[in-house]
Amino acid sequence: MRVLTGRSLRAVAKDPRVVVFSLLQPLIMLVLFSQVFGKAMMGDVASQGGSYINYLMPAILVTTGIGAAMQSGVGLVSDMKNGVIARFRALPIGMSSVLIARSLSDLVRTAVQLTVLLTVAALVFGFAPAGGLAGTLGAFCLALFVSWSLSWVFLALGAWLRKEEVMQSIGFLAMFPLMFASSAFVPIQALPDWLSVVAKINPLTYAVDASRNLSLALPTGTGVISALATSALLCAIGIAIAVRGFRRPL
Question: Do 178 and 202 form a contact (C-beta atoms < 8 A)?
Fold first, then answer.
């Protein structure tokens, strides 16, 4: 697993385009959402975060993790297509270690993305949540765990579907409703009635709210435990389905 994880990370590091674009995408989201919604939403979020950037950043951490998780499945399908997985099958290694290495390498990439995001948000946009370093670190770790659990869901899809185009279509189809029909960018009470109902049952809302409460030093209640438990359940299901699908002949 250590060797395979290192291989995946070196493959990314050797292609500057992948590094640049993987960092640019969440930064562009941060700039756009902070500037587009910032002044308009100040009145609605002032009581929670003090400023819109403090309210926004925990959601950006979680949504960036979801985007990175989607790339796990796409990367696995790409390895299946280019013959790397076929060569691995000829080696005396467990096939499950290939999947674990893929998830770990993507976890490292996500951690780098989130670290860059937090640094830019603090230095450029004045991100300074009430929870301080401890709360921000808690939100960071929660976003990483949610991303890692969802990466197993997309790895499972990739192991069974084995089509990059289908994977990307499913990923974008799932990602945008989850992002915008939630509490990620605006408070639920600011949404239309029918959309607020959808947002309240959206699993992303629970992850974002838990991350936001940690960052802003708000009461967490059972939110963090619920987000962790839901993510752990998704992770366990994803691992079981991914391993079974990956063992099928190419």
Answer: yes
- pLDDT tens, per residue, the chain with 250 residues: 888 899 888 888 888 787 788 888 888 888 888 877 766 666 566 556 568 888 889 999 999 988 888 888 888 888 888 888 888 888 888 888 999 999 999 999 999 999 999 999 999 988 999 889 999 999 999 999 999 999 999 999 999 988 888 888 887 787 888 888 888 888 888 788 888 888 888 888 889 999 999 998 888 888 899 899 989 999 999 999 999 988 887 6
Q: Which long-range contacts (CB under 8 A, 24 or more apart) does 54-57 make?
A: 54/127, 54/128, 54/129, 54/130, 54/215, 54/216, 55/212, 55/216, 56/30, 56/185, 57/30, 57/117, 57/118, 57/121, 57/127, 57/129, 57/139, 57/215
Give the separation between CA 5 and CA 98, rounded to whole angstroms. Answer: 8
Vertex 83: Cα angle to 79 and 86 (nearest 5): 100
**Contact indicator for 41, 128 with CB cutoff of 8 Å:** no
For the entire predicted model, the pTM comes to 0.89
Domain parsing of the chain, residue ranges: 50-247
Q: Which two tokens stand for residue 47?
A: 């009581």
**DSSP 8-state code for residue 190:** G
